[in-house]
Amino acid sequence: MNRLEAFGIIAAQAARGDISFPTSVNAVLRLQQALNDPDCHLEEAIRLVLGEPQLAARTVALANSSAFNAGNQPITNVRAAVTRVGYRNLQMLVASLLVRQFGNCIQDPVLRAKAEQLWEHTVQVASLAHVFARRLTFVNPDTAMFAGIVHEIGAFTLLLRAGEFPGLLDDDEERWGELCEDVVTREVGRRLFLPEPVAHAVFELRGAALHTPPVSLLDTLLLANLYARMPSPLGAVAPVPDEGVVDAATLQEIILEAAELGASMEQVVLV
Known about the structure:
This protein is mainly alpha-helical. It has twelve helices and no strands. It has helices at residues 3-15, 23-36, 42-50, 53-63, 78-104, 109-137, 141-150, 153-162, 176-191, 196-203, 217-227, 248-265. Helix 2 packs antiparallel against helix 5 and helix 6 runs antiparallel to helix 8 (153-162). The model has no long low-confidence stretch (mean pLDDT 85).
């Protein structure tokens, strides 16, 4: 089977909604659905977080980051951490755990290395999106961070499927992989119940132009992709903004803030 046929199979399956997730991904998806339930109370949320050690560790780490700990009062337990970061950020952390599980399921060492790179890229984009939103575009920073976490979900899915199709991710001058990834992203996004503003920004990201001044969630993601030092291993190209979008001093501050926030998200490595 040649690569074009493989992309066709994957895209057709995605378009039909015929995407099966590994058991570990399904487990986190169930957790996400439980937390998204409007009747999920604080005690139930705490119980769910405690049942997932990786999520518990990252919730405490995020609560102690400068973005959520302006008073420099350290937190050492999940209950206080959930209260501090709030439901929206808890859902973001669940989404990051969900994305991470895609990488955990990859066995091939070459694809595994790509998954590591993609995860690092994802963390950098998510943390930069949070800071750009707060300081420049003035969209909801938590929404921006969530969008950054899920913006490469189609790429993670392709990496997961690549083990079935040798050579799938080789050099792709005709860019069939991008078309396939876009189809997969839309279907996986639907399965993850992405909120409409997030879904719109993620689905429109490829090929979008940055507005001047940047004001939207899509602009925020474009900026975050541009300034993430780790590129996607699948070859996505960041847009080039007009000069003067952000001055050098402010940009350096944003990058430093994002690096500290990103460090709180990278508590778990692929095992």
